[in-house]
Amino acid sequence: CPCGPVTAFVPWDGRRSGNPVRFHSVPAFAAATELPVDVPGRGTVLVDIGYGGTFYALLSAAQLGLDVCTAKTRELVAAASAVTEAVKKQFKPHHPESEDLAFLYGTILTDGKDAFSEEPTTNICVFADEQVDRCPTGSGVTARIALQYHKGLIQLNQTRAFRSSTTGSVFTGKAETRFGDHNAVIVEVSGEAYYTGTATFTVEEEDQLKYGFFFK
């Protein structure tokens, strides 16, 4: 991935793959917590900034007067996008290894249930050009776990369930091990995955660039 190597695990019964599939994240960490951000037209809110392969701003939808479980998606998207733009103007993330990764990718609105519980916590991830993820988001779950661990709300190897407010799909996540500085953790994210298509790549002998090329 652009953020680095991610190890995936897929069950195999000798005939076909199955579920759940899971992956181990790149080192994930909290970049900021309870950061005051002035969102034009919506007031000052407190956001957390978490890195789970990319940087996200995270906050409860209630701070914006919305319920992430019942509000219309277009309302959540508008609110999340306003937060993203405000954070971009007021906070510059830093990545310890690559400044190419030091940018805010989007905002995750949650139900505010960050403390460990057996019950799923719901969120919606609005990223890039106001795109909405159909799932709880792999890098988003990773960022949420990293923040919860940083705040002492979840312990290593405690599994938490995360639900998408748009489709109801569920991922689970847990912080498996600590990694290096920044109180970083490697997070395992698990969920269901299905084939949606296949692709075939062909190399022809006459192709002068068939083995690739370098830029000097």
From TrEMBL:
<protein>
    <recommendedName>
        <fullName>trans-L-3-hydroxyproline dehydratase</fullName>
        <ecNumber>4.2.1.77</ecNumber>
    </recommendedName>
</protein>
<dbReference type="GO" id="GO:0050346">
    <property type="term" value="F:trans-L-3-hydroxyproline dehydratase activity"/>
</dbReference>
<keyword id="KW-0456">Lyase</keyword>
<dbReference type="Pfam" id="PF05544">
    <property type="entry name" value="Pro_racemase"/>
</dbReference>
<dbReference type="InterPro" id="IPR008794">
    <property type="entry name" value="Pro_racemase_fam"/>
</dbReference>
<comment type="similarity">
    <text>Belongs to the proline racemase family.</text>
</comment>
<comment type="subunit">
    <text>Homodimer.</text>
</comment>
